[in-house]
Amino acid sequence: MTITTPKQAGGGVAPSNLVTFQIDELEVSVPKGTLVIRAAEQVGIQIPRFCDHPLLEPAGACRQCLVDVSMPDREGNLRPMPKPQASCTLTVAPGMVVKTQRTSAMADKAQHGVMELLLINHPLDCPVCDKGGECPLQNQAMSNGRSTSRFVDIKRTYPKPISISTEILLDRERCVLCQRCTRFQEQIAGDPFIALQDRGARSQIGLFSADVLGFGGDVPAGPAALDESGRPFASYFSGNTIQICPVGALTNASYRFRSRPFDLVSTPGIGEHDSCGSAIRIDHRRGAVLRRMAGDDASVNEEWITDKDRFAFTWQSAPDRIATPLVRDETTGQLRSASWAEALDVAAAGLAAATTAGGGHGVGVLPGGRLTLEDSYAYAKFARAVLGTNDVDQRVRPHSAEEDAFLGHAVAGRTVGGAGSVTFTDLEQAPTVLLVALEAEEEAGVTYLRLRKGVLAGRTAVFSVAPLASRGLDRISGTLVAAAPGTEPEVLDAITGSAPLGQLRTVADGLTTAGSVILVGERLAAVPGGFTAVLRLAERTGARLAWIPRRAGERGGVETGALPGLLPGGRPVSDARARVDVAAAWDVPSLPTTAGRTTTEILRAARKGKLSALVVGGVELADLPDPAKAVRAIEKVGFVVSLEVRASAVTELADVVLPVAPPTEKAGTYLNWEGRPRPFPQALASTALADHRALDALAAAMGAELGLRTITAVHAEIDQLGAWDGARIDAPVESAAEPTELAPGQAVLASWHLLLDAGRLQDGERFLAGTAKRTVARTSAATATAAGLTDGELVRVSSAHGSVTVRLAVTAMPDLVVWLPTNAPDCAVRTSLRADAGDVVQLAPADPAGDDVVSTDSAGSDNNDEVSA
Amino acid sequence: MSVSTLTPVLSAQWDATRSWTLATYEAGGGYAGLRHAFTQEPAAVLATVKDSGLRGRGGAGFPTGLKWSFLPAPDGGPRYLVVNADESEPGTCKDVPLMMATPQYLIEGSIITSYAIGCHHAFIYVRGEVLHVYRRLLRAVEEAYAAGYLGKNIMGTGYDLDITVHAGAGAYICGEETALLDSLEGLRGQPRLKPPFPAVEGLYARPTVVNNVESIASVPAIVMGGSDWFRTMGTEKSAGFGLFSLSGHVVRPGQYEAPLGITLRELLDLAGGIREGHELKFWTPGGSSTPLFTAEHLDVPLDYESVGAAGSMLGTRALQIFDETTCVVRAVTRWMEFYAHESCGKCTPCREGTYWLKAVLRRIEAGQGSMEDLDVLLDTCDNILGRAFCALGDGATSPVTSALKHFRAEFEQHITAGACPLDPAASALFGYPPRDAGRLAGQMAGTVQA
């Protein structure tokens, strides 16, 4: 394990592929096919531009980048081209002579002319415009425009702004019609919900009707309630259009009119909402974050981020932030504020007594999956070195022993550039990508964009083993390899070179091609035999394998040992040499030898009185496989220490609550799914402690030396520990579960998290919530008919524990399967049904007498604890 | 000059009874060209057209045969012929009467051309507004299918061809060949970035020939008569015949099919001259996008080279004739209103430039201009010409710059007198209610609903 950033491979270009030409009297050699405007950038010559964007196809629309070009004719005599040329569409040619506005009066005049034309209908309302101060139009008007306007006629006006979605507002007067937004939506996101409309000076960016486009049931949640235009612009990447807009035409509903760019302090950051590790920029003022922008990292997110990474940041400063440590008052039984000293003492005493060494049954540690590498390492060490237990598990989602083995065997220790590694760039180049239990757009947004880039370039074919082809899969021309929940191992095993000609054979042959990749999602843990089959497939085809969890901290946690069977560096707990290694580095006599409990086992043990205390990090109980049981475990266990940013369901049950810092208020490192360290600095000054520091203090209060007070100390220790060169955990060997017999009206549940849902990290951002997809249940037409359901009508999906009632969208998918979003605001599957993908549920038309559209009755019985846990 | 100067080929049957039917067309020798073409290899047909010196009749005058030969070698995939029947240049009115009167000429030409270039699906993109022409074309194609000139195994040759007639939605920009292709594909009609050129990646990204109606309609006669016959007409570099469309203040406006190189003086003789009691003031040689000529250009031979040398363009041979009663400011303003309305909006110079020119011209016409406005007009034209994405923007500047070149004094008169010195009603052939000057200059200039 290392936390140094890997070096990029040198991008040398063979001289034969270089073109030499002249720009402003400078001799320049650039790769063949380079656009003049890019070549100019390379030698530091800035040609003004609006429509040009390095990641979008050339358009040549704004005409601002005109330059004077001469070309050698056949005899080699230089001949000036009669018209100035758009440098954003012109590729360099040998012997070409380019004169920009710096050396050519014609180019300068042309640029001044275009700038004047751009401004005649522009409102020039810079003093009230969000973009003022960081506006390409403003800047270039100053550098390449006339100081006064000759336009005295009446400007074109429009009512303003119009809502493109709940979070994006369009001011058509400011728009210079460069079409960056529409081109982004079409070429990058694949959500062309906006387009140029009308013509001439009346040209404007406008909306399409959902009826025309067809959403396949994925209608945005917002418009009905919030958007006055009543029309949807549903794209998870729409915020990028605001950022690339070269004027202030596209603005964000929550940021609009709130700040001037020159008042903001910018700090680089890393998106905390998925495991992609997207580079972001956090813009803040007087201790408050006002907006987040995409950072520019060509090897990870290029210049794009999801709307969740962009807009969902208010959770960090929500009103329910825990400001001070809290301690449960012995007399009142209520939580009360306490000093750090008191809280640490109480926590230390409680935990010390709960350890086996202290006479208790032991302590379980649930750090949660959203931690930085440093914090996660601290939990892993705290559990082993201070609490003397391997009962530590970061997974707050369905998981399995098979997954433990998979992570230890095939994920731990992988580094970017190391053997078998997969990177974003690899995805873009891969001939075939097979997605298994991974809905890339929902669960790893910018990864989806990379896949799409490879597909659009004609390099990549995507296949998805899933119960249905989502709109996301359609937009990457992906092929569905249909698999009902639980049958994934069977389908994966059928992908062989000896399969009869057809889809499975195509996938098998594709995966055999060098560079092909299998991407596995965390949801495969819920499928017995799934990871086993994936490993078999990878071995059979030679395709490389990458695991893409949803949460930002999970990949790091595999390396830090926030799993019951793994020590830092992916060292197996079962390996004596590994334990000695780590014990020596930690300066403890020995480490616990018995394998730890998984999350579910920890909670069960807590419920059964087999654990005396729990240390709980950022854990949302509703995300656990069985939230109700988790609540009972926390209630039942003797002592609970919670380390949280905001009050949660755990807080009210905890004995001691230690407030910790959200990502903005601490420095740290995420390890993204590639295994690439993504360090970020602290953006806001804060007194809040990072988890590692709180744990260090807690250990000190228990009389132990954790040695992780500063981030430097954590890094030093991780570096000292080094990578593990011993054997990895054995690959899992698990067979698939037998299919369940279904009674009439029953179906197997399929489910995944949507990008925008009821997640707590999206709290407080109603404009973002408006672009979430409306909740629907999906079944095949045959299943709907058999269960008496009608497309578009309400369906009641129930289990023994409760039900949800949502609208049905009939979808092409295997029969006897019903899909529900895992955690939509009106459809919390785990809380309501206490069921998960692969479980059997009951389908019925919604009771017309039912008064509530969405019921979440979860008062089921608790009698079958051991069976279903 | 006499009527014998005319060379009616395309218009030869226009006066026949029910000239638009296949029967009339065949009775007049129709489809002999196709039969003759089928006796030759496609390459030989292509060579004939190339040798004939036929140049594109849509305005630019690019050698037609040469354009066909730009198609890459067949790769087994489809290649297309697209006939540009989106005639919409102000003053241009040759393709519409041709398709109205003898649509079979275009169908036959399309079949021969398709055969020559190895195309099995040709498209005719016709202006949607000319519904009667659209119907005539549909019927003509129907008749051709019924007669076995279209479909599978045409006339037993084993050659297959389908023709689709597509009605455009009425945008001038769709006469630009790449915008036409986008529109035909169902997209917003906007010009494409070139390269790739249509010959390499045209319709559906396949090799495509885009030709004007008159060019294609000329092909059967060329194949029948041979390239030498064609070259007996016209000039050395501008071979053959063409339709000259006279409109405006002439006694007999209409289509005059004559060899290229004829002069306006000769054409006016044929057309009975300028209307009684008036004299020529200015005229366009090839539609509103070609710089204006005046009486001093009456003897300029109307071929590509001579018109070019005289400072304009032959264009579509749309000769709009204006006598001394016409206010040149008014005429130019109307044209500019057209360009501003038809600009597709893709590029800044054309979109914003025509908006501005229109506003300034309206003010000048209403007598509310200033002398500085004339400089603004010229400078804005300079900022559009050669800066726009396609030729539409360039064309929009022609009437302004040429009018200011020849009639600057008349612009200045509007400004100094504070009103138009001419009576608009005098130039009209019918009762003409004067327009409200204030409304012209004021509200209309600024409103987007103009």
UniProtKB/TrEMBL annotation, chain A:
Its EC number is 1.6.5.11. GO terms for molecular function: 2 iron, 2 sulfur cluster binding; 4 iron, 4 sulfur cluster binding; metal ion binding; molybdopterin cofactor binding; NADH dehydrogenase (ubiquinone) activity; NADH dehydrogenase activity. PROSITE patterns: 2FE2S_FER_2, 4FE4S_HC3, 4FE4S_MOW_BIS_MGD, COMPLEX1_75K_1, COMPLEX1_75K_2, COMPLEX1_75K_3. The keyword Repeat does not apply. GO terms for biological process: ATP synthesis coupled electron transport. CDD domains: fer2 (cd00207). Residues 844-869 are annotated as: Disordered. It holds the Pfam family Molybdopterin. One of its GO terms (cellular component) is membrane. Its cofactor is [4Fe-4S] cluster; [2Fe-2S] cluster. Residues 17-104 form the 2Fe-2S ferredoxin-type domain. It comes from the Bacteria. Residues 106-145 form the 4Fe-4S His(Cys)3-ligated-type domain. NCBIfam families: PRK07860.1. PANTHER family: NADH-QUINONE OXIDOREDUCTASE SUBUNIT G, RESPIRATORY NITRATE REDUCTASE. This is NADH-quinone oxidoreductase subunit G.
TrEMBL record, chain B:
GO terms for biological process: cellular respiration. Keywords: 4Fe-4S, Flavoprotein, FMN, Iron, Iron-sulfur, Metal-binding, NAD, Oxidoreductase, Quinone, Translocase. It catalyses: a quinone + NADH + 5 H(+)(in) = a quinol + NAD(+) + 4 H(+)(out). Gene3D superfamilies: 3.10.20.600, 6.10.250.1450, NADH-ubiquinone oxidoreductase 51kDa subunit (3.40.50.11540), NADH-ubiquinone oxidoreductase 51kDa subunit, iron-sulphur binding domain (1.20.1440.230). Its cofactor is [4Fe-4S] cluster; FMN. PROSITE patterns: COMPLEX1_51K_1, COMPLEX1_51K_2. Its EC number is 7.1.1.-. It holds the Pfam family SLBB. Residues 329-374 form the NADH-ubiquinone oxidoreductase 51kDa subunit iron-sulphur binding domain. It comes from the Bacteria. GO terms for molecular function: 4 iron, 4 sulfur cluster binding; FMN binding; metal ion binding; NAD binding; NADH dehydrogenase (ubiquinone) activity; NADH dehydrogenase activity; quinone binding. Belongs to the complex I 51 kDa subunit family. NDH-1 shuttles electrons from NADH, via FMN and iron-sulfur (Fe-S) centers, to quinones in the respiratory chain. This is NADH-quinone oxidoreductase subunit F. It comes from Pengzhenrongella frigida. The lineage of its organism: Bacteria, Bacillati, Actinomycetota, Actinomycetes, Micrococcales.
